[in-house]
Each structure stands twice: as structure tokens, then as C-alpha cells.
């Protein structure tokens, strides 16, 4: 009989997002918590009763009890599901650590946390082989024990682990390494992996589910969970992507010579309607701009910023290039002289200070424009 389950990982509940404005960070933290509800809906819609979480449910062991209680309550609310959690490197099962604190708070009946590596029968003839991490980093492969782990002949064997598959990604900096041949060596029907924050299949029997809620401007298929169906021991698993992400992190490069790209982005955001408030947007502007063009561009970015949750402006590669009477629009005297000097310095790419000059010239234009608007706003 087929066995169906949902594979997820890397929730990172209570991630601080300290580089963002407090209001935006708060919205993103809440979305990481409520991702549990969307994961539960995906499991139920797919006919799964079990949810396998391959590590890093929590962002760090030092979370206050209120965050721990919130995570537990979110899973407890979905009583028809059983949540199987194997600690990862962000929330390791260390002595006196966060999982002992959680045990004292009291685990809900539908939440199972695995603190030691041993086979557990989670359904008749279906065994889970968890590889919980006890430390943030370790030299040994945490899945190596699975090779010799005995289960009844013909029963399903599902591995649950957190770490970097050797030969995949930037393993040189990996703190936990897992052998790519582990599914074959351990006779696994599927190896549910966590650590990589996007969906990635590693051969026919192993996959990373990625984080259910995007947390960066990366094109790595985040915001998903994997619905896995095991039809039989001699059949490869059927793996289906389920969208569970709430926010979208979009990164766009806009060349000033092709402002039609900006127009297309404006149309894309407008087409999202109210859902645009879920968008985290990063725009890098490159190319030469006159003072008039820079003013127009700033106004259009301001409009976009009002439509989305957050806009990150990356303007270091935008080159202020005064044309015509641009410099004459600056106040006479020292300010205009400064504008001419910065224009020359910004154009001298052989001078390491040209990037600073670009930035200073751009800000000088902006301040001058704002000053003109303020004067005009005062009226007679």
C-alpha cells in the first residue's frame, strides 16, 4: 500500500531579520510561524498524515519560551497530523539545550522530536531513520549509522537528516557532510534532507525541501514543501512540489539604457494587486543618468516602494552624468563648484575614489532637487 508524507525543513522560526526595518522584520517573523498552517494544508490536501521536518525548526537555541510555545501551539492546532522533527545545526539536541527546555514546557501529543538515531515505526511497515544533530558542527556523517540499522524485510525505510551532500553546493564551508550514496548504502526508499534553503533533488532517492518561507533574494526555488509518495520498495518515490510560501523575494537589474525593463516591473507589481504587499523587492540600477533622469527614476522607485512590503535600492553602479544645464541647476557658488569637481572625479575610473564621488554626486543632486521642491512648496 502506498505511503504518503510531506517533507519540509528549515523553518527558522523567530529569525530576526535584523538588517530590515522593525515593522518589516516583524511581518516576516510572523510569516515563518504561520508557514506551519500552510504546510499543514498542503499535507492534508495531498492525503498525508505525517509531516517530516528535516532540522532547523528554530532559528537558534536561545529563543525565549514564548517563541517555543508559539511554535508548539501552531503544530498542535493541526491535530490530524503527526509532526516528526529531527534537530538541525541551528537547533541541535545538545545537553541542557533547547529541546530539553521544550520537553519541560510539554510536547503536544502530535509532535515527535527525535533525539537519538534509531529506527522508529511511524506506520505499520514504515520506518523512520532520523539523524538528529547534537552539535552545530561535526566531523562524522550523521547518517552513517543508517547502513547497519535493521528493519523488517520489505518495510519502507525513510531517512531524515540535516547537512550538506558531498559534491553538492559549497561543501568546503559545510559544517555537516552527508555521503551522496547514503540512500543506496542504507537501503533507503527516500532520504529527506534539510539545510539547503531551496528545493533540490539529489538523485532519485534524496531531496532537499528548502525553506517553506523565502528569506533572501536567491533563485533557488524556496517557499515549497515536498509531497512524497512511496508506491513500493522497488519503485522510486514520486515527489511533488507544493507551494507554501507567503512572501516573494524579487531581484531585478535595471539598466538606465533600457528603462522599458522598469516599466515592465511596474506593470508586474501593479498586476499583483493587493498581493504586492507580500513582495520583498531588490532593484539594482546600472548605467549613466542625467540629473533629470535621476529625479524621474527616484520618483518611480518611491512609487514602487509604496506598493510592496520592502524595497531595497542598489544604486552604487548608477553613474551620475550631468548633461546640458544640469550643473547650472545647482545653487551658485560652492555647491555648483562641488558638483563640477565631483563630476570629474566620478568619471575618473582609474581613481579608486570614483565610486565615492558617484555616490556624493548623486546625493548632491537629490538634496538640490529636494531643496527646490521645498522652496516651491512654500509659495509666495
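-> sequence recovered:
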Amino acid at each position: 500500500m502506498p505511503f504518503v508524507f510531506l517533507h519540509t525543513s528549515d523553518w527558522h522560526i523567530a529569525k530576526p531579520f535584523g538588517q530590515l526595518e522593525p515593522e518589516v522584520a516583524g511581518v516576516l517573523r510572523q510569516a515563518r510561524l504561520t508557514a506551519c498552517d500552510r504546510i499543514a494544508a498542503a499535507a492534508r490536501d495531498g492525503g498525508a498524515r505525517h509531516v517530516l521536518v528535516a532540522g532547523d525548526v528554530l532559528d537558534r537555541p536561545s529563543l525565549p519560551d514564548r517563541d517555543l510555545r508559539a511554535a508548539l501551539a501552531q503544530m498542535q492546532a493541526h491535530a490530524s497530523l503527526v509532526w516528526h522533527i529531527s534537530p538541525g545545526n541551528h537547533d541541535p539536541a545538545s545537553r541542557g539545550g533547547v529541546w530539553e527546555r521544550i520537553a519541560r514546557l510539554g510536547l503536544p501529543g502530535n509532535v515527535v522530536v527525535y533525539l537519538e538515531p534509531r529506527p522508529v515505526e511511524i506506520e505499520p511497515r514504515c520506518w523512520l531513520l532520523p539523524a538528529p544533530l547534537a552539535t552545530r558542527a561535526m566531523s562524522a556523517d550523521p547518517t552513517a549509522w543508517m547502513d547497519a540499522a535493521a528493519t523488517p524485510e520489505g518495510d519502507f525505510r525513510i531517512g531524515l537528516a540535516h547537512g550538506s551532500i558531498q559534491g553538492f553546493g559549497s561543501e568546503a564551508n559545510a559544517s555537516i557532510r552527508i555521503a551522496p550514496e547514503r540512500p543506496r548504502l542504507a537501503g533507503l526508499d527516500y532520504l529527506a534532507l534539510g539545510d539547503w534553503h531551496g528545493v533540490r533533488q539529489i538523485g532519485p532517492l534524496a531531496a532537499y525541501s528548502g525553506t517553506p518561507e523565502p528569506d533572501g533574494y536567491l533563485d533557488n526555488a524556496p517557499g515549497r514543501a515536498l509531497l512524497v509518495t512511496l508506491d513500493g520498495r522497488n519503485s522510486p518515490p514520486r515527489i511533488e512540489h507544493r507551494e507554501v510560501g507567503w512572501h516573494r523575494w524579487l531581484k531585478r537589474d535595471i539598466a538606465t539604457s533600457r528603462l522599458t525593463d522598469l516599466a515592465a516591473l511596474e506593470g508586474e507589481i501593479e498586476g499583483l494587486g493587493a498581493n504586492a504587499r507580500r513582495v520583498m523587492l531588490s532593484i539594482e540600477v546600472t548605467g549613466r543618468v542625467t540629473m533629470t533622469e535621476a529625479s524621474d527614476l527616484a520618483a518611480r522607485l518611491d512609487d514602487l516602494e509604496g506598493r510592496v512590503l520592502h524595497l531595497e535600492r542598489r544604486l552604487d553602479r548608477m553613474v551620475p552624468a550631468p548633461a546640458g544645464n544640469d550643473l547650472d541647476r545647482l545653487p551658485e557658488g560652492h555647491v555648483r563648484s562641488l558638483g563640477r569637481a565631483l563630476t570629474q572625479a566620478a568619471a575618473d575610473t582609474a581613481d579608486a575614489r570614483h565610486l565615492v564621488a558617484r555616490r556624493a554626486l548623486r546625493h548632491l543632486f537629490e538634496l538640490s532637487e529636494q531643496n527646490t521642491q521645498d522652496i516651491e512648496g512654500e509659495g509666495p
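Residues 354-378 form the longest helix (25 residues).
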